[in-house]
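In response to reviewer comment 3 from the previous cycle, which asked for concrete evidence that the modeling workflow produces usable outputs, we include below a single protein chain processed end to end. The sequence was submitted unchanged, and the resulting structure tokens are shown without manual editing.
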Amino acid sequence: MHYYLIVALQAFCIYHVYKNHKPYYWYFLIFFIPVIGSLIYIITQVYNKNDADKIQSEITSIINPTKKIKDLERKIEFSDTYTNRIELADAYVQNTDMPNAIVNYKKTLEDVDQNDLYARQQLILCYFQLKDYLGVVEHSEVILNKREFKGSKQQFCYGLALKELGKLEKAEEQLKEIDRPYSNYNERLELAKFYIENHRKSEGADLLNEIYAESQHMTKPNRRIYRTTIAEVERLLKTL
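The workflow returned the following structure tokens.
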């Protein structure tokens, strides 16, 4: 049991480091000195009295991810509110149960007094995970003109869904919105592949060369994060 608690503590700390963009050396401290490193991180970077319950809850969720779902389901039985439904849907996403997440996000859409933007954004991601491209398109087109949609992961999923459905002109229009220098490297790689697959090798090569040139100026942490993307860019350039 002690082993699982240590692993859960490490997992929580590493997730917190990643989520909050903490310095890279924390990964080494937490990984190579599991108990002491994790405790030092929590005491210095996470813990305060207001966070104590949240930390306990998140560690419990890592050890027993279904407990949080069961607790939220009981909460809904007592009070079926928009907020409780969203929390339950989010918990299903964390547990990679996209079908149940979809059911609950869609349930929140029945509350016309609430802003449906967040639920739609999540539905797009859930449907994309399930390769239900019609579902992606349906919910994307409801929020297409929202400021938050522009340049987002949801817009990228929408572009790829259109591509899969054979709507290539519309797909390119959306994917090009994600083409921003010194960012969105994975998304821009997909756009380059889109060009190549559609017999536009010159445009694909230009974009791949841009990404490669930018990669030469990345910080070491970013080079580690995007090493697979950079390797794929280099591989594709050699084939052109």
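The chain has a mean pLDDT of 87. We consider this sufficient to address the reviewer's concern, and the full set will be provided in the supplementary archive.
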